[in-house]
Automatic annotation (TrEMBL):
InterPro entries: UspA. Pfam families: Usp. Residues 65-210 form the UspA domain. Residues 1-61 are annotated as: Disordered. Residues 15-34 have a biased composition (Low complexity). This is UspA. It comes from the Eukaryota. Signal peptide: none annotated.
Amino acid sequence: MGKPAGYWVNKIRTSFKGGSSSSKSLDEGSASGSRKNGSKHSKNLKAEEANKNGEGGGVQAESGRKVMVVVDTTSQTKNALQWALTHCVQDEDNITLLHVTRTPVGQAIDETQKERNSRAHEQVHPLKNFCQLKKPNVKTEIVVVETAEEKGKTIVEESKKQGAGVLVLGQRKRTSKWRVIWKWRAKGGMGGGVVEYCIHNSDCMAIAVRKKSNNGGYLITTKRHKDFWLLA
């Protein structure tokens, strides 16, 4: 008989507090998200963050981490934030909501950068209120970055600059056509989308979160885990 959902919730949550150096590492080819091999994924998820924080010189995960969540106005953002608040953020942590906007080009610009940043803050401020409601003892801040560079690169650079211990991103459901295009681009050395770039280039542990329909839990993807199914 399989373990109850709460068992895996606790295993995943514990993994974000850091892991021992004796934890087994995950084979590069692992990509299953079923409950059957969930125990293996949970143990290795712990090892993955421990290795990231140790080898990359990142923030230690025992206490006072900075959990950075990339936000915008989409439902994917709120789903990822909900997951982070439930399974990742501890009372001693800090939350940074990162909102990346594009620098306007090719047309007359009526707003100053300060005005654009103020408007961007207003757009994502309800998410800060949501964090304070769910985690009133955790400090939450909004960081708005306007850039003309690639969004993925900007996110990775900002997470390093802010000293993030964990980077969380919302992810849309991939269509079959999109998966074919992504694989073709990856083989050609052009890389995938923003989420894939962040997962493979971030100094800290980067986690993509997608909510399954009909209260089916979440699909979690990291550098060594693909669509790990978490029922919660």
